[in-house]
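Handoff note, outgoing to incoming analyst
You'll be picking up this chain. Sequence as last confirmed:
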Amino acid sequence: MNYLIQFLTFLSDIIKSRRLILELAKNDFKKNYLGSYLGLIWAFVQPGCTIIILWFVFQVGFKSMPVNNFPFVLWLVCGIVPWFFFSESMSNATNSMLENRYLVSKVVFRVSVLPLIKILSGLFVHIFFIGFLFGMFFIYGYEPNIYNLQIIYYLFAMFILLVGISWLTSSLVVFLKDVGQIVAMILQFAFWLTPIVWSYNIVPEKYLIYIKLNPLYYIIEGYRESFIYHKWFWEHTYLTTYFWVVTIMFFSIGAVTFKRLRPHFADVL
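Most recent structure output, in case you need it:
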């Protein structure tokens, strides 16, 4: 019962700080890009180049065929756009405590918002790429439809998952600096183990269940179902239930861990 009260109090503090979080996220976004010559353009250049390279390798080099009779480039972009948001936000949020040591030592500042600031900063770029997705589909002759609206649901689901995991990793990295490198390594494995540049249809049925245990599978395929396959998320009852059980578990563990370790941050940093 005591843990539940602490958890609810923790969430209440986050909600009260929502305006501060949004303002700091805007400042963080500007700080990351406005100091360079090309400014905000860099926020979109690197992901754009990665998309072009992957398209060239798989479409031109490996001569990948359309997936389920759908243009490969559209299928690829639907998977890699949410991955960009997840991987960048996860890396930045994990190191948010180390990057803002001067704020951690301030008693009046709610350091629990620091991972959220990094995630929201990445969200600004992600919203642009969602618009880019709509543009590409329109160019290929696919008009917006009602299924596209559930992209809001999948974005919310990914946001909650990110917050929970980043609370856990950002609190642990204060005491164990190797956590940052471990997260980077896990993200590299996750990219190739998640059906982003390859279709899960090539996986034997007996191994597919292990692929689906990865919560990112739910998000990546959710984006594709919103734009390509036109299926609602509630059609996958068991997969949706599993995803939210895992997400709530990460969210709860992350929040409790952060709350317990918070008093020791200043001493270590």
